[in-house]
Amino acid sequence: MSNKVIHVLYNDDDILMDAVRQTRAAHHHIEEIYTPFPVHGLDKAMGLAPTRIAITSFLYGLVGLSVATAMMNYIMIQDWPQDIGGKPSFSYIQNMPAFVPVMFEMTVFFAAHLMVITFYMRSKLWPFKEAENPDVRTTDDHFLMEVAVHGDEDQMVAFFEKTGAVEVKVIDKH
Amino acid sequence: MYTFSSKLKTFAFVLMALGLVGIVFGFLTAPKTIEDVEKILADSHHGGHHTEAVAHESHDEHAATAAHHEEAKTETVVADSLKTENDTVAAAAPVAADHHDNHKVEAAHGHDHADAHAEHQEHLEHVLHQLQNKPWAALYVACIFFMLISVGVLAFYAIQWAAQAGWSPVLFRVMEGITSYLLPGSIIFFILLVASGMHLNHLFVWMDPEVVKHDELIQGKQGFLNVPFFLIRAAIFLAGWNLYRYFSRKNSLAQDNANDDAFYKKNFKLAAGFLVFFIVTESIASWDWIMSVDPHWYSTLFGWYVFASFFVSGITTIAFVTLYLKSKGYLEHVNTSHIHDLAKFMFGISIFWTYLWFSQFMLMWYSNIPEEVTYFITRIENYKLPFFGMLALNFVFPVLILVNTEFKRLSWVVVMAGLLILTGHYIDFFNMIMPATVGDQWFIGVSEIGSLMFFFGLFIFVVFTALTKAPLLAKRNPLIEESKHFHY
Hints:
The complex is a heterodimer. Chain A is 47% helix and 14% strand. Chain A starts with a strand and ends with a strand. Chain A has a 4-stranded antiparallel β-sheet, with helices on one face. By secondary structure, chain A is of the alpha+beta class. Chain A has 2 domains: 4-36 and 141-172, Alpha-Beta Plaits; 53-122. Chain B has one domain (6-31, 132-484). Chain B is 75% helix and 0% strand. Chain B contains 19 helices and no strands. In chain B, α11 (227-256) packs antiparallel against α12. Chain B is elongated and about 80 Å long. The A-B interface holds A 54, 58, 86, 97-98, 100 and B 358, 361-362, 365-366, 368, 403, 405. Chain A: This is DUF3341 domain-containing protein. Chain A: It comes from Flavobacterium cerinum. Chain A: The chain crosses the membrane at residues 53-76, 96-120.
């Protein structure tokens, strides 16, 4: 089976949005869209599932809160409950106000950093990663839609030429 | 145009009538003389159903006095007595000359029976003052709470104008409706302040010349805390806020029929000016009206703290009125994105309030300086449930409920979260006023609920009457189109 894709290039985000809607209506499968900047509403037009990264972040925050609490409870209350300047180290709750700044910061720290790392891993981003840019112009001022070819190739090219594209290319993807 | 539904109007009148009955009942049942108090206390001691608060206080006193009589009998007794004495003195020392707490110190040092009797009399007088304050304080808390809600909405409204917010102009008429309560609310509030100034109650101990005579700390503050200056300040603040409300509403209505944006520009400048005036006066007002019930205590971020409390209540009220009008089909252009934005503000300002609450509490708890920390000691000892309960209502629940984007678009979720927030902030004001005025004699009973109902009824009546006075959509506001199509 051939792995042909069509690269359709646009030079305006409004035209791109229109084209995406037409493409979806014509039941062509959009493989990927490359844009130089975030296009508001593009994910909805493409029908992408909403991100769950906020949920992971919330859970990471809970982890951070637990780590901070467990750490300070062990160190300050269980292991060596010293009298430091008259602070009550008899139980965690008694000295809790003093621990809140750490609890807060650890919550934010875990929520933020683990979420960012999750983002990198899910989007497969890391140093020395080979760039997957099909056309250098897409980082500057062009928008590129990649559509899988099935059925009549010429008909599809004709369809995309009518969507306001500045360039339509058929590429053999290996 | 909005028409005031007769059902809602009846509801408002019923609330006012029932509330009035509750308020009057509270005043009639307040004890008049020391004998009444003695009876109440005796009943509560022998009846078996004694309130914990009363029993607790007298127990402490007995322990302190008894400990002195039996000094040096056994090591443990001495240790105990010292502990009790230290506790009592620590709690009372900074307010030593304050007649409210005077007896505590004396109790701790009492040595013979004559003194004990005098102490008892003094204790009764102390409780009498607290019980007499109770209906007044209940009225005061409910009055200031509802008035400050409309002030919070006014501040939010001014911010929307000054920031040229593009999402909120469809809600301007709702906000203007809510701020219409400011005028009647502030008139009643000012009358209450004048009543205190005329010594009809003991809400502000520094107004009592007998107290001030024995209190060097208050004497030192008399340049600021004296009745005429206090009332003049209150009059200026209230007048300034009401003037802004009057002119901004007038310009907003005039803009509807204008040919240019002159009234819009006027309102923009007015809002900017008001916000400067507001932040100064709000801060001073919170010292005057709330912090001065504890004239020995001071906190630098108190103004912000009070502001956050009524600001979030105000935003919640906007959300409530908007959702109500929307559900009745009056707000065509309000969509879930507007509600979502309001809910985000409720969420964010709830956290801001908590941040200020904690900053105030933790700094004082950590340093534990006696003259500061008594404020929290009395609250934690006598108001444990309201003091920590409001943290759950004002922080934990809103954060867990409103953190979710989908939830912020659901009316019923916003209403549930809003109810928690408003309840929590009423309790916040309760916690700020009550410990200094009624002390451990607090109870959320007929007086408190009656006052709340009365002002709630009045609030509904005034706000929804004002909403009928103008179309619910501002017409020629330059940002109205953007606001109609606001989408998040």
